[in-house]
Design brief:
By secondary structure, the protein is an all-alpha fold. The longest helix has 20 residues. It is elongated and about 40 Å long.
């Protein structure tokens, strides 16, 4: 897989479009699509940080279960928060995350 394909995979998990990434980071339209086997290091680091992953993953495509489950959990937390109130604070999101961790740990013990 190419660097671009790895970016697509993470973006899809986070439900973010490639165009949105480009706009938010100030990249030109279609610039990420040009990243086949390599990318400018400074921009790659920015994309990785934006997506909550590492440059290594975007280059090599290695992902462990923890990384993928963290992305899914982050999406679940945001979904739950969206149903609660439009004005959920980062602190409240953190509390929701801790509660989900608490609940899922209890389920794994059963």
């Amino acid at each position: 897989m190419t660097v671009y394909q790895h970016i697509q995979r993470v973006a899809k998990l986070k439900k973010i479009s490639i165009r949105q990434i480009e706009m938010d980071l100030g990249f030109s339209n279609g610039s990420l699509r040009k990243w086949k086997d390599s990318a400018p290091t400074d921009k790659l680091v920015r994309v990785a940080k934006y997506l909550g992953t590492t440059p290594d993953y975007l280059i090599l495509g290695h992902v462990n279960d923890h990384d993928e489950s963290k992305v899914k959990k982050d999406n679940n937390v945001k979904t739950i928060a969206a149903h609660l109130d439009d004005n959920v604070t980062p602190e409240q999101l953190e509390q929701i995350t801790k509660y989900i961790d608490f609940i899922t740990k209890d389920n794994k013990k059963d």
